Amino acid sequence: MDKIWIITRRELASFFDSLIAYVLIILFLGLSGFFTWLFGNNVFMIGQASLQVFFQIGFWTLFFFIPALTMKMLAEETKSGTIELLSTKAVSDWQIVTGKFLACLLLVVIALTCTIPYYITVSKLGSVDHGAIIGGYVGLILLSAGYVSIGIFASALTNNQIVAFLIALLIGIFFQLLFDMMGFSLRGTMGSVFNYLSMRTHFASISRGVIDSRDLIYFFSIIFCGLTMSQAILSKRNWQS
């Protein structure tokens, strides 16, 4: 666990040293704040003390931001050759993958923590459903964890950051949009299967304040599969080299 935490701290520090963290956090807060409070169907337009508008904006914003965050995690180190150096320091492939995963997820959690003033402001406007708001934040964290694991996997597939970004987006489109559309259009067993595979289905359930074991199993399964496949690709490369 100490080695995982060392890798996590190193990667998290590199985000802030290269200004990536500041840029992504500012963009996330700017976009989410603009659409939550000022534009379109914002909080004041719907006339309810709720953060459902923010959670829907976050659902889409994080979908694009996370691939940009994860694209360099393994691709850059593979291209520069530092991944082989890291693998020789008595650090397992699983520890490398997990450490990088946690660094990306922690940065997302930091960005979400910066939106706590939204929660405080809404609570001053009227009676709020605290369970739904807490559930919304939990849903965004689980959603982000799923997409971070997908992004790490995409980064493990190639040594080109742009290709890793596009692969992560392509895989994400299925979970974000296509499975939901197919589940809506199909009936019977196939419709239920695609509906279960949709991120929106499970995120919507949790963001209502309902923490269902089926939703947790879904997100943890995606996280585990993404990290396990990333480790397998990393191990194969190390074995071939």
How would you characterize the overall build of this protein?
This protein has one domain. It is an all-alpha fold and 241 residues long. It is globular and about 55 Å long. The protein has 13 helices and no strands.
Largest sheet: none
Total number of domains: 1
Distance between the termini: 27 Å
> What sort of overall outline do the alpha carbons produce when their principal axes are compared?
globular
* Order of secondary-structure elements: HHHHHHHHHHHHH
Helix content: over 70%
Total helix count? Answer: 13
Number of strands: 0
Which whole number gives the mean pLDDT?
Answer: 86
Strand percentage: under 5%
Calculate Rg over CA atoms.
19 Å
Helix-strand category: mainly alpha
Point out poorly predicted stretches.
none
Q: What is the structure about, briefly put?
A:
With 241 residues, this protein is mostly helical. It has helices at residues 2-17, 20-37, 43-46, 52-70, 75-80, 82-87, 93-113, 116-125, 130-157, 161-185, 188-197, 199-207, 213-240.
What is the topology?
Elements: H1 2-17, H2 20-37, H3 43-46, H4 52-70, H5 75-80, H6 82-87, H7 93-113, H8 116-125, H9 130-157, H10 161-185, H11 188-197, H12 199-207, H13 213-240
Helix pairs in contact: 1-7, 2-4, 2-7, 4-9, 4-10, 7-9, 7-13, 9-10, 9-12, 9-13, 10-11, 12-13
Features:
241 residues; mainly alpha; 0% strand; globular
